[in-house]
Design brief:
Two copies of one chain form a homodimer.
Chain A lengths: L8 H4 L9 E7 L5 E7 L1 H10 L3 E4 L4 E4 L8 E8 L6 E7 L15 E4 L2 E4 L7 H4 L6
Parallel strand pairs in A: 1-6
Antiparallel strand pairs in A: 1-2, 3-4, 5-6, 7-8
């Protein structure tokens, strides 16, 4: 049995950017919808693989961000992929609650380009006030 | 009729990074597969919308890159979306030739994480030597 937990070759192979980060795409494993893109540092990616749930690095808060820790909208990771340049991660996830976006929408990509402008098109499934604890706003 | 071509509000609304770039995801409109991620500057995004084909900014070559200009593997853009933070683009594309990756694979995301390592899993549809003019290699 190989000692997976001490093997960090798979992390060393990542082409981290100047800030030590890599962008990670979360794609809904059930319907193929691209839900969001966020960033991971080495520890976040390691924890994502170890825990089987998406863990990001919040650039605005400069801390690890276990997706769903406040909202409950956890992303269970079914598959992790890496691109040919080793600088983008793609995850197949099960999106708990069916909401990935902090605006209460299924996907963060809800603005569609049409007639020279961006239009918010997708419905808000749940109002953010009902998702997040008011104390934390 | 609005003057779409002189209206740049939709470009001004983008949150460009420190290098004036935004990452753009190309997703196959037919099968939902995430094909690749590359970068666009303001001109590349403007041209993508104007020409209806993916135009990226090559960071390694520091020049505009009309995807498929050498390979023929052009990406016809069906839809452009922007995420909630205005800092990632998602495109629904028709991938000509069925190959997005310079390795000759359908998608750039062909490395799957398993047992503590990345494994190249997807088949090479066409060898790069048959895709690219040898003079340009």
């Amino acid at each position: 049995m190989t000692d997976m937990h001490n093997n960090t070759d798979w992390l060393d192979g990542i082409k981290w950017d100047a800030d030590g980060l890599i962008p990670a795409i979360a794609q809904d494993a059930a319907n193929g919808r691209v839900l969001m893109v966020a960033w991971m540092n080495r520890q976040a990616l390691q924890l994502t693989a170890a825990e089987g749930r998406a863990v990001y690095w919040s650039r605005s808060r400069s801390k690890l961000w276990r997706k769903g820790e406040e909202s409950g909208h956890i992303q269970i990771v079914h598959e992790l992929r890496l691109d040919c340049d080793n600088d983008v991660i793609l995850m197949q996830v099960k999106q708990l609650g069916g909401i990935a976006c902090h605006t209460g929408r299924e996907s963060c990509f809800y603005q569609v380009f049409k007639d020279g402008a961006w239009h918010a098109t997708d419905p808000v499934i749940k109002h953010p006030d009902q998702i997040y604890d008011q104390q934390h706003k």
